[in-house]
Amino acid sequence: MATIDVDIKQLLEAGVHFGHKTSRWHPKMATYIHSKRNGSHIIDLTKTVDGLEKALDFVAQTVGEGKQVLFVATKRQAQDIVKQLAEDVKQPYVTERWLGGMLTNWPTISGRIKHLTTLEEKMASGELANKYSKLEVQRFQEEIDAMNQIYGGIKHMTNRPGAVFIFDVVSDINAVREARKLHLPIVALIDTNADPSLATYPIPANDDAIKAIQLIADYAKQAVEAGKTRAAKATPVADKDEKEAK
Q1: pLDDT tens, residue by residue, 2-59
Q2: Which of 45, 127, 170, 246 is 20 to 30 Å from 10 at the Cα level?
Q3: What's the burial of 189, exposed, middle or buried (CB within 10 Å: 0-12/13-18/19+)?
């Protein structure tokens, strides 16, 4: 039984089935395409339901094991939706710009994040204000703001994530490449112009329409919450076993 039951009517109402112009299709998407309409491909929503439910199961399982899911969406219409999703469920995210090495050069990236958090702590405590002039403090604040623009979403990512959830594999191909290089599982929306083999858990879906993106983000939120519930239920049992062992 699926962790989250996906409603095909909701997918239809959100326009998840609308693909790109037939001239822009990717041949590997053939199995996910239902038909053509007005020069555009129509995605088979029964395949979307199947792919989405499998992806949501995996997300819930990953979070249930205490791992993080990194959400990626740098495309304009998806940025705010995905940022809100990630913040709501306290998961890391990248919605501004994918910086090369965010996954493959984690030691360097984590060093930059540590520098950012140290500056923020010193700013909050008043240490910088006590040590430096107003102009210098203002420059520190500008540095903090600039770094938060780049690293703010992954500031609390403790290690490499257990999975990467990408809302457009074409726009965020660099994130795809880094995740694949590290053999990290990829959950991704795959529109008719994209290669489904890039994702471990492909979700055939319209990745441009705001309603479609919002609906899938809502389902992803449910999956993360389900995973957190699993993790919370498992923890007391582990603690009890540990105490009995002592």
Answers
A1: 789 999 999 999 999 999 999 999 999 999 999 999 999 999 999 999 999 999 999 9
A2: 170
A3: buried
Furthest CA-CA distance within the chain: 69
DSSP state of 75: S
Across residues 59-84, what is the average pLDDT? 97
**Residue owning tokens 């441009």:** 208
**114: its two tokens:** 């540590």
Give CA–CA dist 51/49, Å, rounded. 6
| CA separation, residue 135 to residues 115, 118, 128 (Å) | 20, 19, 11
∠ CA 88-150-222 to the nearest 5 degrees?
A: 20
pLDDT band at 236 (very low <50, low <70, confident <90, very high): low
Give the pairing of strands 163-166 and 69-72: parallel
Query: Any idea which residue has 């095909």 for tokens?
Result: 8
Q: What is the C-alpha separation between 89 and 109, in angstroms, rounded?
A: 23
Residue 25 region, left (φ>0) first, then alpha (ψ -120 to 50), else beta? beta
DSSP 232: H
- Give which of 87, 62, 83 is closest to 74, Cα–Cα: 83
User: 67-88 burial, b for 16+ CB within 10 Å, e for fewer?
Assistant: bbbbbbbbbebbbebbbebbee
Contact at 8 Å (CB) between 59 and 223? yes
